[in-house]
Amino acid sequence: MNSSLWTGIKLVLCKELTMGLRFKAAWASMFMFALTTLACVSLAMQGGQLEPKMAAALLWMIIFFASMVGADRGFADEDAAGTLMVLKLYGSAQPVLFGKMLYSFFLLAMLVLFIAPLFFVLMGAEAVFPGVFVLTLLLGVAGIAAAGTLLAALAVGARVKNGLFAVLMLPVILPVFLPAIFLTAEALGGGSLSLNYLGGMALYDGLLAVGASVLFDYLWYED
């Protein structure tokens, strides 16, 4: 990666972090959705425990739908504020893409850091393989960040936006989502580990990042 590209990525990332800390609505909505869902399920269980597969599915459903609360705002907020055209004039495609992708990954990593301890406490779960559990979470949110950044750029110009992002997102992220559920269940003691899933998730994350890099040039420089 050349120095000018990395400098541009850092500038976009710093801009996103500054705006995210200044306007915390997306952060608050994501965290409150995750907390409320976990608390409601925990109260409904009345001290009971879910089997590992159900617990893993619940965790990833919460991560996925919590990410939908703020993941599509990356370009929509720029468009609403009227700064998207300025960003197109003065910013190259690749620094903008990877800067926003890194910010999305950071935001989702903070969400996971917040929700994982609560998940263990409220669900009474235990990580038998903590290293696999953490790595699965990181690969999963990396895939969501890569796909979400590209699809947010696609959805920003659509006339009908309500629900469009989630509809586009689910089929793209399924190759990461399903192995993440299987690996999380196994890390929680739901069976023997199938580490091939980790390689598959990493490969698909890389394909998503490369595909986003190729396609984003066409979106960014479109007249």
Sum this structure up briefly.
This protein is mainly alpha-helical.
What do these coordinates show?
- The protein is an all-alpha fold.
- The protein has one domain (3-220).
- It is 82% helix and 0% strand.
- The protein has nine helices and no strands.
- It has helices at 3-22, 25-45, 52-70, 73-81, 84-90, 93-123, 130-155, 164-187, 196-220.
- It is globular and about 55 Å long.
- The mean pLDDT is 81.
Topology at a glance:
Elements: H1 3-22, H2 25-45, H3 52-70, H4 73-81, H5 84-90, H6 93-123, H7 130-155, H8 164-187, H9 196-220
Given the C-alpha coordinates, what overall shape results?
globular
Helix-strand pattern: HHHHHHHHH
Mean pLDDT: 81
Report the count of strand segments.
Answer: 0
Report the radius of gyration as a whole number of Å.
18 Å
- The tally of helices reads 9
Largest sheet: none
- Terminal CA distance reads 28 Å
User: Which class best fits the helix and strand makeup?
Assistant: mainly alpha
- Number of structural domains: 1
Low-confidence stretches: none
Strand content: under 5%
Secondary structure: helix percent: over 70%
